[in-house]
Amino acid sequence: MTFETDRLILRPWVEEDAEDLYEVAKHPDVGPIAGWPEHRSVENSREVIREILSAEGTYAVVLKSSNKPVGSVGLTFGEASTLNLPDKEAEIGYWIGVPYWGQGLIPEAVNTLLYYGFEMLELDKIWCGYFDGNIKSKRVQEKCGFKYHHTKENFYWALMDDIRTEHVTCLTRDEWLEEQ
Question: What is the largest CA-CA distance in the chain?
Fold first, then answer.
């Protein structure tokens, strides 16, 4: 499935995206704050596409102006979520490369998947979260209508082999409909 907005195309990742992915995912300010290690090579990016980003519900955030992926957004359902959710709920995750920060691109992508999740999939609730210190991610969630739910403190995060605190937010279908 592919989605289109004014400035973006959200489409599945393909292995041919590896070089473009590496260019944005190698920056140390992108992955670690989002919970994954910075990419080490084009081949590492290709492996991440094959093993992680090719999952159903995960999309490359592609700029229409350049036709290049600059980030990622995705919905994770049920037990595949880090929150182990019921069937009518999903978790949304996202990130974008440093040169594209502050342009409203990720809220545009997130709002597209909120529409898809609530209108087309008829989900009851969509969850999101951000690690302590990730103010940019917190701001995206606020802009998109997510409300604070709870904080998970001092838990082990295997991808980074460290201890994290995560602030969890959510948005119900009814809350989302009120804002439309």
Answer: 45
Contact 137, 92 (CB under 8 A): no
57 backbone φψ class: left, alpha, beta (φ>0; ψ -120 to 50): left
Distance CA(147)–CA(174), nearest Å, equals: 13
pLDDT tens digits for range 135-160? 999 999 999 999 999 999 999 999 99
CA–CA gap between residue 47 and residue 56 (Å, rounded): 16
Q: How far apart are CA 152 and CA 111, in angstroms?
A: 25
**Residue 35: DSSP 8-state:** T
Between CA 106 and CA 82 the distance in angstroms is 21
Cα 130 versus chain centre, distance: 10
Q: What is the pTM of this model?
A: 0.95
For the chain, the residue count is 180
